[in-house]
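Module 6 notes. Inverse folding takes a fixed backbone as the condition and produces residue identities as the prediction. Think of it as a translation problem where the source language is geometry and the target language is the twenty amino acids. Below is one complete input and output pair. Work through it position by position during the lab.
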């Protein structure tokens, strides 16, 4: 019954997001899948954290869509999230919620779950708010080098602070809504662990974007872009650098996975 109830709630939420143009059709289907697992197997505490990520990230995307319209050439996809984007951001969280169903007393699963969402929330806030900074981004692997806004691997102080705020929001919810039976002793320590893990995951995302993510070049616009096979202008893009298979979606998976690893490595020191 809980799984059925989770499916109903996930369907309603995904349909509303589709109507608000936060998701396309494939994204809506993927969101129903992820939401059903988290709503149905996790419970309301797990759902609150997921909704905090989804509502804030979608809200920022819609709120600043016009102000970022001139940066669409930099990204591989539009503001409407597709299935790959939904799964890259929420797939690991759904897996951990499913794992919790079989190991309900394991506190590390809750911490890993919230850290994964802290990371993708931090990355989304950094992307959506960082590009609004009046200052040019700096390449994370070479702070002396200024790059165009929207460039993979570019960071700003405003974006980094937004990233930390996004991670801190999820960390706060992780402590406030920890499920019954899951010990979150040393609350402040766990809060900082999740927040820092989320921030580090976001920075790892930028590191991958600056080094090994697949980046292309538009010969018509002479612009660097994540877009493949076509640029926003409609011109076929040419491979420029990175690993051809490492798309932005896989970089997002790496972002969440890195935060999970940070929590799993350091969680034992807080027991």
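Target side of the pair, the amino acids:
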């Amino acid at each position: 019954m809980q799984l059925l109830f989770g499916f109903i709630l996930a369907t309603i939420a995904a349909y509303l997001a589709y109507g608000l143009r936060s998701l396309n059709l494939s994204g809506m289907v993927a969101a129903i899948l992820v939401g059903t697992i988290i709503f149905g197997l996790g419970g309301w505490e797990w759902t609150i954290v997921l909704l905090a990520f989804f509502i804030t990230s979608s809200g920022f995307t819609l709120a600043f869509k016009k102000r970022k319209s001139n940066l669409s050439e930099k990204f591989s996809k539009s503001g409407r999230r597709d299935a790959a984007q939904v799964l890259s951001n929420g797939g690991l969280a759904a897996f951990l919620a499913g794992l919790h169903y079989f190991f309900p007393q394991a506190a590390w699963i809750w911490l890993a779950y919230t850290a994964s969402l802290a990371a993708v929330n931090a990355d989304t806030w950094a992307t959506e708010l960082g590009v609004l900074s009046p200052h040019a981004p700096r390449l994370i692997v070479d702070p002396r080098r200024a790059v165009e806004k929207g460039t993979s691997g570019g960071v700003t102080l405003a974006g980094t602070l937004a990233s930390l705020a996004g991670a801190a929001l999820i960390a706060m919810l992780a402590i406030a809504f920890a499920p019954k039976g899951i010990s979150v002793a040393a609350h402040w320590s766990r809060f900082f662990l999740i927040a820092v893990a989320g921030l580090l995951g976001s920075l790892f995302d930028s590191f991958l974007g600056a080094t090994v993510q697949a980046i292309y070049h538009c010969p018509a616009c002479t612009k660097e872009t994540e877009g493949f096979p076509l640029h926003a202008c409609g011109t076929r893009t040419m491979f420029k650098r990175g690993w051809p298979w490492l798309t932005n979606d896989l970089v997002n998976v790496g972002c969440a996975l890195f935060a999970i690893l940070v929590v799993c490595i350091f969680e034992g020191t807080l027991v």
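Reference fact for the lab report: The beta strands are 138-139, 142-146, 154-155, 215-218, 223-225, 238-241.
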